Amino acid sequence: MYFTWRIMLCALLLTGACREKTTRALVWSDEFDTTGVPDTTRWGYDLGNANGWGNNEKQYYTRDARNARVENGKLIIEAHQDSIEGVPYSSARLVSKTKGDWTHGRVEVSARLPRGRGTWPAIWMLPTDWKYGGWPASGEIDIMEHVGYDPAVIHGTIHCELYNHGKQTQKEGKITIADAQDTFHRYAIDWAKDKIDFYVDDTLYHTVVREPKDDYKGWPFDERFHLLMNLAVGGNWGGKEGIDTTIWPQRMEVDYVRIYQ
What is the mean pLDDT of residues 161-190? Predict the structure, then answer.
């Protein structure tokens, strides 16, 4: 009886993200099960400050263990209030470029977010080859963005030539996750040829569909992209309501990254 009930329940629930994960193969992952430096076969780093990374951010990105390390089965990306080359905070930005690059599939990251005014964590994707030109022409997929002054809101967004925050035309969805800073949640996209679905856990909260008129200017998402995970400090968005100087250090913890195709 119990076995029959489980089969019936699975059949009822086998929709959306559940179906996608059961019919796709796991092609790339990091479970963060070794202590120390993040796996160099999977991750590289963006380093420095680069004039605020285009958003007037206040962190200097390093590859130091103080800012990026694996411990207790979790990747820790930690921002500190210190000074490197005159930049008042340090943090880390891990990238999978040339070590993990994909076109379409499900990208799923389990993470717990930092807290406090001035934090700006992100799990996102950029094009590996920039076929259509520099940002935003070749696209950006923001799987999860969060700003500490608005603690319960998760954002999922795409940017491209036609739709981007510079023009205030970005295609953005939001979902309320009251405990995002206390509990691990699964932030994911299902990226298909003409559609991208955004999830938290298995809740679909935003869908972007390629419009019939869209050429590469409206849909550059037919090339390979790679994953980025970072914790920014301040900036045009993250620092919109200032930076609380009493909260540091702050960290984003990542339990796993899994890619299905």
Answer: 95
Residue 145 is a catalytic residue: yes
d(CA 76, CA 54): 24
Alpha carbon separation from 247 to 79, 117, 191, 230 (Å, rounded): 10, 8, 36, 18
Give yes or no for a cis peptide into 249 (omega within 30° of 0): yes
Question: In whole angstroms, what is the distance from residue 80 CA to residue 93 CA?
Answer: 14
Distance between CA 35 and CA 83 in Å, rounded?
27
CB-based contacts of 127, cutoff 8 Å, min separation 6: 138, 139, 220, 223, 224, 225
Q: Which of 20, 78, 140, 253 is catalytic?
A: 140
Least confident residue range of 4-8, 24-28, 89-93, 220-224: 4-8
Among 145, 161, 172, 211, the one annotated catalytic: 145
CA angle 221, 227, 228 (to 5 degrees): 125
| Nearest residue to 177 (alpha-carbon basis) of 225, 112, 94 | 112
- Exposure of 43 by Cβ count < 10 A (0-12 exposed, 13-18 middle, 19+ buried)? buried
**Closest by CA position to 144, among listed 59, 227, 248:** 227
Cα–Cα distance list, 150 to 4, 8, 119, 155 (Å): 45, 40, 10, 11
> Over the stretch 48-98, which tens digit does the pLDDT of each residue have?
997 788 899 999 999 999 999 999 999 999 999 999 999 999 999 999 999
Characterize the bridge pairing of strands 203-209 and 119-127.
unpaired
User: What six digits make up the tokens of 223?
Assistant: 């090339």
pLDDT of residue 13: 41
Does residue 234 come out as left (phi exceeding 0), alpha (psi in the -120 to 50 range) or beta? left
Question: Is residue 31 among the annotated active site residues?
Answer: no
